[in-house]
Design goal:
Number of strands: 21
Distance between the termini: 33 Å
CATH superfamily of the largest domain: P-loop containing nucleotide triphosphate hydrolases
Shape: globular
Structural class: alpha/beta
CATH topology of the largest domain: Rossmann fold
Number of domains: 2
CATH architecture of the largest domain: 3-Layer(aba) Sandwich
Number of helices: 13
CATH class of the largest domain: Alpha Beta
Largest sheet: 13 strands, mixed
Radius of gyration: 24 Å
Length: 463
């Protein structure tokens, strides 16, 4: 596989800095840019130049560690399984905690090139401020490894701790090489993201005999009148999101039959709820990858090589997982950190060599997610247009210990979809509006219509 321009430039810079005595190199490259292939090629270069004896790769998950191992083997022709005769091995950060002393002694007796994928998982500049993984790196590798390569697409931590092995300037981490999303889009390395924010114009919450009115998800979430996780369990919200996403994916698959979609769920039962809606409402048998499945890693690998349209996952297809055929994603997880948001988005950005190809990302217009989306757009030159797509319909949401009432004078003539947020007994039905009011503590009423706001990249994307 040929090196991309950024990979070649970064490789030459890293090799030059290593030869000049700088032992640690930090590469920031946008998710989906091809960091694994770059790292494997750099490792092969150092081995061929007899600058190192062994290569050891660390990754946040088994599937990513396996990808690094395969890339190293492809570039060098050697084995990296840790057995006799191998030129190294790959392992997860979690498995570092159980490595024997003999493993760590390799960094003292051999010239080891250590690769750290998604280094932001390891925190600490000193043992005093380090997490468990960062402490191991500081104690056993920082001064002992011949050379290190730290890779990240999101160079920060949600807990604001410093990243292990990184250098810091006044405020931010100092990267030896940067390859941002703006350059990756221009180069055709990453797809152009189109972000769709899903909202509802008028929401009523009835509680203890009182009614509150909200003009969107932002107002509702800010009020704490309803848990965000309950909103995500709304069958109406899930169905609307999936309808938009499946329409988009169906259109893409007319030209690219292998194009796939990812739904990121909040929990195992939420994933099963989503998979059930995909089957019942859209006739799609989705793959499901959660820790409770028998062999989720095999499920992900099989999906990667198949033409199955959708996969639903809870935290197993996020950072570093390479499934290039993914082009559509529904973000329906309760995790609301910017790091996770960008890592999930990165799963659909990896291009297949086609310039100006698009990726489509659907998410509720929850205020922190909207902030992340707007910040992402700001990273790319140009003012993105905002397009509103309004669909008629009256949606009623009901959860455990909550109920919904509707009146015939509000949204008259529009279909009503009653939604039970309790995953154990949710149902979907169509009926005329009624005066029905159930005796629960809290009522949440989604009125008039869902709508979506599309954030696209100005000059690079069109709706």
């Amino acid at each position: 596989m040929r090196l991309r321009d950024w990979q070649r430039a970064c490789l030459h810079q890293a090799e030059a800095q290593y030869r000049q005595g700088q032992r640690h190199f930090l590469c920031l490259a946008t998710p989906g840019a091809g960091k694994t292939h770059f790292a494997a090629t750099l490792a092969a270069t150092l081995l061929e130049a007899d600058l190192v004896d062994l290569v050891i790769g660390f990754a946040p998950s088994v599937i990513v560690a396996d990808d690094i191992q395969a890339a190293l083997a492809a570039q060098t022709g050697a084995r990296f399984d840790g057995r006799l005769g191998a030129r190294g091995l790959t392992l997860t950060y979690q498995s570092m905690l159980t490595q024997p002393e003999a493993f760590w002694s390799l960094f003292q007796t051999q010239r080891v090139f250590a690769i750290f994928d998604e280094i932001h998982h390891c925190a600490g500049q000193e043992l005093a401020d380090a997490n468990a993984w960062g402490a191991l790196l500081i104690a056993n590798l920082q001064e002992q490894a011949a050379y290190t390569l730290a890779l990240t697409g999101t160079p920060w931590r949600s807990d604001q701790r410093p990243i292990a092995l990184a250098r810091y300037g006044t405020d931010n981490v100092t990267c030896d090489y940067r390859y941002g999303l703006d350059r990756a889009i221009v180069d055709g390395v990453c797809r152009v993201p189109q972000l769709t924010l899903i909202d509802n114009d008028t929401i009523r919450v009835q509680r203890d005999g009182h009614t509150e009115h909200f003009n969107g998800l932002k107002a509702l979430v800010d009020s704490d009148a309803c848990r965000y996780e309950d909103i995500l369990r709304s069958e109406a919200l899930i169905t609307y999101s999936l309808r938009q996403a499946t329409r988009k994916l169906d259109n893409l698959r007319r030209h690219d039959p292998r194009a796939g979609g990812l739904v990121v769920a909040s929990s195992v039962d939420h994933a099963q709820q989503i998979a059930g809606i995909l089957l019942r409402e859209f006739g799609v048998q989705a793959a499901v990858a959660t820790y409770q499945e028998r062999d989720p890693l095999t499920t992900i690998r099989q999906f990667k090589d198949s033409e199955t349209p959708w996969i639903v996952s809870v935290g197993m297809i996020s950072e570093g997982t390479n499934v290039p055929r993914l082009r559509v994603c529904c973000h329906l997880t309760r995790v609301k950190t910017e790091l996770y948001f960008r890592q999930v988005l990165g799963r659909i950005l990896r291009a297949n060599g086609i310039r100006r190809e698009k990726a489509y990302f659907y998410m509720p217009a929850e205020p922190t997610l909207v902030e992340y989306a707007e910040r992402l757009i700001e990273d790319i030159p140009g003012n993105p247009p905002v397009i509103r797509d309004r669909l008629p319909g009256q949606v009623t949401v009901r959860s455990r210990d909550t109920a919904v009432s509707s009146s015939p004078d509000h949204g008259a003539g529009l279909p009503e979809v009653a939604v039970d947020l309790d995953a154990s007994r949710y149902e979907s039905r169509t009926s005329a509006p009624s005066n029905l009011s159930l005796a629960y503590d809290t009522c949440v009423h989604w009125s008039t219509r869902f709508h979506s706001q599309i954030l696209a990249i100005h000059g690079l994307s069109q709706s």
